[in-house]
Amino acid sequence: MVMASVTTIASHLTSTFLYAPEFCRLSQSLHTSQRPCTRKSVSGTISANIDLKPPPYALDALEPHMSKETLEYHWGKHHRGYVNNLNKQIEGTELDKMSLESIILASHNKGDILPAFNNAAQVWNHEFFWESMKPGGGGKPSGELLELINRDFGSFEALIQEFKLAATTQFGSGWAWLVCKCLFHQIYNQKLEPIFFNVYFCVDDLEDKKLVVLKSSNAINPLVLGSYPLLTLDVWEHAYYLDFKNLRPDYISTFLDKLVSWDAVSSRLEAAKVSIEGK
Amino acid sequence: MSWSSSNYLCLSSSSSVTQFSRCKLPCESEGQRGKCQDLNRATNISAYNSLKPPSFKLDKGQRRNDHVLKKPRNISAYYSLKPPPYKFDALEPYMSKRTLEVHWGEHHRGYVESLNKYLGKDDILYGYTLDELIRVTYNNGNPLPEYNVAAQVWNHDFFWESMQPGGGNLPILGLLEQIEKDFGSFSNFREEFIETALTLFGSGWVWLVLKRNEKRLAIATTTNAVTPLVWDDIPLLSLDMWEHSYYLDYKNDKARYVNVFMDHLVSWNAALARMARAQSFVNLGEPKIPVA
């Protein structure tokens, strides 16, 4: 792979990705009367090439719930393949110097997806997925995350039920998500033309935040829907076939009981709050 | 006049215009009261007859207590799981026995069982053949919940029959001619098929279809459970590009799977037979205009 990209690392998932410099530039080029981004430009927006980030644990660390072989193929072949193909696709184009999230939003093109979208979104989704798991995961969330779950789903068990249902009923390939849904007040208030609805901002008060379970097909991720993803589960068959064959419900239960990292979910929720409040 | 292979429609020439009308059901022509199926439903007389509950009418001399008048049992299964036309290890080493066991025994069987469960809930979709059921549940693009499982049952049946032990090589006779006519050469077709299969993103199928209106062969891809039946083309071959179909044997190496399918598994005999049958409905030759 190629040189490390400062912005790629900087625009890590738990950071305020919507305010990354490239995204600001992109949004400014779309619409001039937007609020200017207040975040300082990170120097050395080198770039371009997207990296293959390894999971934050060894490949055999999730045994026996997710085997080393699965991780070797899933990360080593599938995820790596997406990264390589994406780099090939964006080389020499205007997407080349952008951060991963910007590439996703730009190639999503309001639904009329460009060729780079599938690869870019899959790279992002898989990074997010590895970080949604940890060795010795499972258990229950706590603190503010648990409060919001209780507020929006009734109870933790209800969230689990709904998440399992979404993941099981996603027909074909796709992902199941827990997201924090943002509302588009600011867009409506500013009376932007419809073409700019693709630029998503979140409201100030946390009360308007709502946790929601979504399922998406193929490579779609909630960034293009204007939501902050907090947790994801890969239900493409390659994610569970070696360990569970066709028994997707068992895979989902194992993920929720033994692998999910509620710490990661909590910290993403914090980051979501920060990026809203710290505008 | 092209008509669907699975509908039993009757032609009647009442005027100079030949009309399609539905064949009369036996109950209608005899003027019986009681169970006559919905008039708008596509007919399938054989399925209807075979599943009709026994009549309650007493024969001469029969008494009401005779056991023949016991209530009919509830029908509990509507579609069956058809095995592939070869043994599970017959496609080794190109498609392993284990893959067949899981793909047919778990996935395909699961679809059949889900379908039967759906249909057991109420009588609305009772009485269709599988082809008809797929068209009806596809609902012109707004599929009903039964669509996915019904279509996947059909797709998998079709897929097993699109392969054979000792398959691959070249098509023969009319099929080869038609391929050369529509694609230039067999190797062009093969390249295009493989490329189409590899660029399909997500789960889906790759098909060799005979397009009814254009009267030519074409390669089509569909996502998830969609099948060319719903837009009325005639499929001749299919390749399952869902990951479950190749993951155990080839893991992520899709290219090898597709090449092996083309070289060693595809059943040109089946494709030829399907094309021959399709020619009853699609005229592939030049129209022969008689000279006075």
UniProtKB/TrEMBL annotation, chain B:
The keyword Ribosomal protein does not apply. It comes from the Eukaryota. Keywords: Chloroplast, Metal-binding, Oxidoreductase, Plastid. It is an enzyme of class 1 (oxidoreductase). InterPro entries: Mn/Fe_SOD (IPR001189), Mn/Fe_SOD_BS (IPR019833), Mn/Fe_SOD_C (IPR019832), Mn/Fe_SOD_N (IPR019831), Mn/Fe_SOD_N_sf (IPR036324), SOD_C_sf (IPR036314). Its cofactor is Fe cation. Residues 79-163 form the Manganese/iron superoxide dismutase N-terminal domain. Residues 175-271 form the Manganese/iron superoxide dismutase C-terminal domain. Belongs to the iron/manganese superoxide dismutase family. This is superoxide dismutase.
